[in-house]
Design a protein that fits this description.
By secondary structure, this protein is an alpha+beta fold. Helix content is about 45%, strand content about 15%. The chain has two domains: about 110 residues, Phosphorylase Kinase, domain 1, CATH 3.30.200.20; about 240 residues, Aminoglycoside 3'-phosphotransferase, Chain: A, domain 2. The site of magnesium ion has 4 residues, from loops.
Length: about 375
């Protein structure tokens, strides 16, 4: 085993025994290892991860958020007679009592109990799987319904502050760093025509119509562990991006990424549409679990969440294109512009079908 990993492992409270640590999964953000400890009784597995300090400049705040959210979830799971080591993540403490270890190179590592008997799948390419994803994240919202989200750190500042994202796009326009401004006039006009929309969700929060909640911010199906036997969602994982936010953010980003009929960087925009059956499937699962915990205005704003998360994402791609592709990795010329275009096409499609989207939410609610 790598000496560096060995040194880090030695600082955690793990069972005695021979250890093995192997790369695990195919996540993008964290380095993930599966640690197996062979004890006299058998073996026990753990998930060991490095928290990316480029994405999260304050990694200890990430851990503090996870501590608070999982502690609260444990209370709720216990009340319902559930299995606290299976239905939420459990941090393994270090020998100094903290729930992480800082390695010699300054990187932060943490360890979770391995949730056995589960698997994760990458693509929710069927309505049934997408509904399952909706259920899992809806349940997460319901369970955290009584949690005071203001306790959490905003570990990525202004992550879904859409007006701030708009402003950053305008800054990129003013700088025109890569000299590409002339070629994106149509896309820019689209964003400017939507400026008023960018305020709707935060205004509703400010006016007290909707509450601040815990948002997961990475609501992909591969962040839900599914029971190997029943196929049902067991545990929502990947809690690094848990932050204070709005329910429309989690709902909206799921729709943005999961209900499009084409890839995020599809060049043939004819192929890019919002799948209404997929939208309905996710909404069905999500509201079946979270519905009772949300107020009427929150439900009504779910389609707006889908539209804003999509617009926001498009604005980020467009801004990065103008900045010279500094944030999102590109694999071809105009890659970020292509991505921005799919997002704006989706927004347009949502607007064309707005009454249907609202109708679906009303029907389910
Ligand atoms: N506690 C756990 N028990 C079992 N498997 C896990 C656990 N945590 C993560 N995994 C597996 O590791 C993969 C990557 O972990 P994740 O926390 O989602 O990192 P990333 O940010 O890289 O997506 C997951 O998709 C899942 O398959
Ligand atoms: Mg993940």
């Amino acid at each position: 085993m790598d000496q560096k990993i060995k040194k880090i492992l030695a600082q955690f409270e793990l069972p005695q025994g021979e250890m093995e640590a192997l790369p695990y999964g195919n996540g993008h953000i964290n380095d993930t290892l599966c640690v197996t400890v062979y004890t006299e009784k058998g073996y026990k597995r753990f998930i060991m991860q490095r928290v990316n300090n480029y994405v999260f400049p304050q990694p200890i705040e990430v851990i503090e958020n996870i501590e608070k959210v999982t502690a609260y979830l444990r209370g709720i799971i216990r009340e319902n007679g559930g299995d606290i080591e299976r239905e939420t993540l459990t941090l393994v403490p270090a020998k100094d009592g903290k729930n992480y270890v800082i390695a010699e190179d300054g990187q932060l590592w943490r360890i979770y109990l391995f949730v056995e008997g589960t698997r994760s799948v990458d693509l929710p390419d069927t309505e049934a799987l997408f509904e399952l994803s909706g259920r899992a994240f809806g349940k997460f919202q319901r369970q955290l319904g009584g949690f005071d989200a203001a306790q959490l750190h905003e570990t990525i500042v202004d992550f879904h502050n859409t007006p701030a994202r708009y402003q950053r796009l305008m800054d990129a326009v003013a700088r025109n760093e890569a000299g590409r401004l002339d070629s994106v006039q149509e896309e820019l006009a689209f964003c400017m025509a939507h400026e008023a929309d960018t305020h709707v969700l935060l205004d509703a929060l400010k006016d007290g119509e909707i509450p601040l909640r815990v948002t997961h911010n990475d609501t992909k199906l591969n962040n839900v562990l599914l029971d190997m036997q029943s196929g049902e969602g067991v545990c929502v994982i990947d809690l690094d991006t848990v932050m204070p936010g709005l329910v429309a953010y989690d709902f909206g980003d799921s729709i943005r990424s999961g209900a499009s009929t084409a890839a995020e960087d599809e060049r043939d925009l004819e192929k890019v549409q919002l799948s209404l059956p997929m939208f309905e499937a996710f909404a069905r699962g999500f509201l079946a679990e979270a519905g009772a915990a949300l107020n009427a205005r929150e439900k009504e704003l779910l389609p707006m969440g889908a539209k804003m998360m999509t617009l926001e994402c498009g604005m980020r791609f467009l801004a990065d294109h103008l900045n010279g592709d500094k944030y999102f990795r590109v694999h071809r010329e105009n890659h970020n512009l292509d991505r921005a275009r799919t997002q704006f096409t989706l927004v347009r499609h949502m607007e064309e079908h707005w009454d249907e989207l609202m109708g679906i939410i009303h029907k389910i609610s």
